[in-house]
Structure formats: C-alpha cells, structure tokens
Design goal:
Helices cover 25% and strands 30% of the residues. It is an alpha/beta fold. It folds into 2 domains: 270 residues, 3-Layer(aba) Sandwich (Aminopeptidase), CATH 3.40.630.10; 124 residues, Aminopeptidase i, Domain 2 (Roll). Helix 8 links the parallel strand 16 and strand 17. Helix 1 crosses helix 5 and helix 5 packs parallel to helix 10. The longest helix is centred in the middle third of the chain and has 16 residues.
Length: 413
C-alpha cells in the first residue's frame, strides 16, 4: 500500500511541472471522485452530503466536504503548489557567442548550482489571440529543449572552493545555434497550425526533464523535483478523499515568494471560501476548526550535522516533523501539537520535532499567515527532506504515507 501510494505521488509530481498543471491534475481527480466545481463569480447553493472544489487563477485550489462538523468544524490541510525554479522573462530571446538563449529570472529561494548541466523542459500558461478572441492554454514541452552548461574547471580553478553564481549572466539556458522564432515555437504547442495565433503573454517555467523515482540499495528514498511542496498537496488530497471526517484542502500558489497575492495564503481566497460556507457562523467555525499547515521540513544532513539543532533534527524515514518556533515563524502551539501527537501515537506512527538552531534564520510557511487571517488554531508539520529548493530533492518512503494516515484520522481527536 505504501509503495503504491508513493508511486502515484511521484506520477502526480511528474505530471505537475507548474502550479497550473498541479491544480488541473487535482481538479480532475476530485471530479472523478464526485466533487462539484464551483465558480467564485456565481452564487453557491451547497447541499448537505455533497463535496465541492473551487479554483482561483487556476494555480490555487480549495476542496471541501459539506457541511463541517457541528462540534469540531473542519480539519483544514494547507499546502502550496509552487516551487523555486527558473521563470522565463517576458522577452527572453538573446544571442551570445553564436548561441540562442532564453533569459530567466529566479523564482523564490532557488538553489542555483544544481541547475547546471540538466536537460530542461518548459511548461506553464500562455495567453494568446485566435483571430480577435483572447484565449488561454497550458503547455508542457516535456522535451530537453534547453541546457545551462557549466564553465569548465580549466577556466575557473576556484570552482570547487569559492564558486558564486550571478543570476543575471551565469544561469541562462541555451536552446539553439540556428535561427529561432520563439513566438511561433510556443504557439505551435497550442495548435499545430498556429499561423493565425498571436502570443499576448506567458508564464513559463523551466524544469528538470528527469522523472522522480526511488533510490538507495533498499529503495528507501524518494528523489524528485518539487517535493517541496507538491508532496504535501498530494498527501492532503488523498487524506481528503479517504477521510470520513469533514475536511478542507487549501493548496495555494506564491508561498515561495511570500504569499502576498490574490492567490496566495496572504490573500482572501481561503477566508472568502469559508465565509461563503459558514455565513454568520464563520467565527464559530474558526474557533472549532484546526489548520494543519503541511510543508516539507529540513531533515538532518549527514554531511553537515553542525547546521542543525542536535536535539531537534528530523531524520529520514523516522516520522513526520512537527515544526516549532517561539517567534511564530511556525504556528504550532502546545495544544495543536498535543492533538496531533495523540492521533499519531494512536495509529503507531512516529513523529519528530524540528527546531532551527538559535543562531540561524528560520523560514516560514502558510501556517502563521493563515492563523493570522483566519484566527484559527494551527500546527505546522512536514515530511523531512534533504536538498530542499534544489532542482532535485530527497525524502523517505515512509514519511509521506505516515502523514497521510494522521491527516485522515486527525478529526477524531
């Protein structure tokens, strides 16, 4: 069962090179399970016993069962659909040393070194004219159309000791030596005959063409792009589909750049959805509900143990990490931690504690943002991960499945 769960999760991540593709995959899955699509610009008439979902910008999605539990409200699983990557610039085509290149801008806190010498595909949303009609399309060029070659060590003798990367000049993908009509190339992936189409705008991102998989002598590790945080999106979706307790799943875009957008956790999407569900009982619903912010946690790196708080460093395949920070970079409280641990222990699933070193900075999640906007009790948890924000990340085979089982039963506690 765990192997099958992880294989399907990897399939989802492979099929989701951008938040747009992730939301499309989740929406199709929800509809196959009987969830009804809602539109934000229409009136909602929710029926008891029915399940629903709604999207915003096609890059954030909220799904929920109806109605919430009268005594305990919703268990709300929060995650994010975006991952650090290289985003194509609006007018990207340049020429240097006889080679055509596409200019990119780093999105989020991307670890740049691993992007060198990888086969890169391109995916995202395109806005175009067909005649006089403006349309949108998702494209996924799942082919190695670009590469960022390293500078040979002969030309940079300090590369292994003091290499730094200039995000403007050093990390530009190469695509061709001959002439390139970039607009025609993109439009040809919408329609084979694209002569009558006009490109208006695009949100396109490079990604690693290598698929996810299992590694290690005993196949104990999962390696893939975008584990942070599509892993949590998949886990939350499966918990929603299989739980018998009222649940909501909120997968939000733009977490990696601060969440302050109309589709991010700092926007109105989740609050407006909950207010439409609860009406005048919104405050009561929030007091009774629990937000579980799911975002990958830093596993202890065996080659760099000094970078971790020794007593609070999660280990791969040793359980879900509960994130705690006294300065509220994570929203976990003793009350929410106690409830989560009680459920995990009843299911015989181990948990771990993550606390960052006191002399190092601490990242954050949608947890504190959601707690602030909604006034809801929140816990921050995540699957221990190595190589976070790299083009390829690593996690353990048992941790995602353990988190899924906890979320599925957390409403009982």
């Amino acid at each position: 069962m765990m192997r099958e769960f992880n294989e399907e999760m990897i399939h989802f991540i492979d099929a989701s090179p951008t938040p747009f593709h992730a939301v499309m995959w989740m929406a199709k899955t929800l509809e196959c399970r009987g969830f009804i699509r809602l539109a934000e610009d229409e009136e909602w008439e929710l029926e008891i016993g029915s399940d629903y979902y709604v999207t915003r910008n096609d890059s954030s999605i909220i799904a929920f069962t109806y109605p919430p539990c009268a005594e305990k409200g919703y268990t709300i699983v929060g995650a994010h659909t975006d991952s650090p990557h290289l985003r194509l610039k609006p007018t990207p085509l340049t020429t240097s040393a006889g080679v055509k290149r596409l200019g990119v801008e780093p999105y989020g806190g991307v670890l740049l070194n691993p992007w060198f010498d990888r086969d890169l595909g391109l995916a995202g949303r395109v806005v175009y004219l067909e005649g006089e009609v403006r349309k949108e399309a998702l494209i996924n060029i799942n082919l190695p159309i670009a590469v960022i070659p390293s500078l040979a060590i002969h030309l940079d003798r300090d590369a292994n000791s003091s290499r730094s990367i200039n995000a403007q000049s050093d990390i530009v993908p190469l695509i061709a030596t001959g002439d390139v009509d970039f607009e025609s190339f993109i439009l040809s992936h919408i329609q084979e005959d694209s002569s009558h189409l006009t490109l208006l705008a695009h949100e396109l991102s490079f990604y690693d063409c290598q698929k996810g998989g299992f590694v290690g002598i005993n196949q104990e590790f999962i390696t893939s792009a975008r584990l942070d945080n599509l892993l949590s999106c998949y886990v939350g979706l499966q918990a929603l589909l299989e739980s018998s307790y009222p649940m909501m799943l909120a997968c939000m875009d733009h977490e990696e750049v601060g969440s302050d957008s109309h589709v991010g956790a700092g926007g109105t999407f989740v609050e407006e959805t909950l207010r439409r569900i609860a009406g005048e009982e919104f405050g009561t619903l929030m007091r009774r509900s629990l937000m579980v912010s799911c975002d990958n946690a830093h596993a202890q790196h065996p080659n760099f143990p000094s970078k971790h708080e020794s007593e609070h460093a999660p280990i791969l395949n040793q359980g879900v990490a509960i994130k705690i920070n006294s300065n509220q970079r994570y929203a976990t409280s003793s009350r929410t931690q106690g409830r989560f641990v009680q459920c995990a222990r009843a299911l015989h699933i181990p948990t771990q504690i993550f606390v960052t070193r006191s002399d190092m900075g601490c990242g954050s999640t949608i947890g504190p943002i959601s707690a602030t906007h909604l006034g809801i009790e929140t816990i921050d948890v995540g699957v221990p991960t190595l190589g976070m924000h790299s083009i390829r990340e690593l996690s353990g085979i048992s941790d995602a499945y353990g988190l899924y089982r906890i979320l599925m039963h957390l409403g009982d506690y």
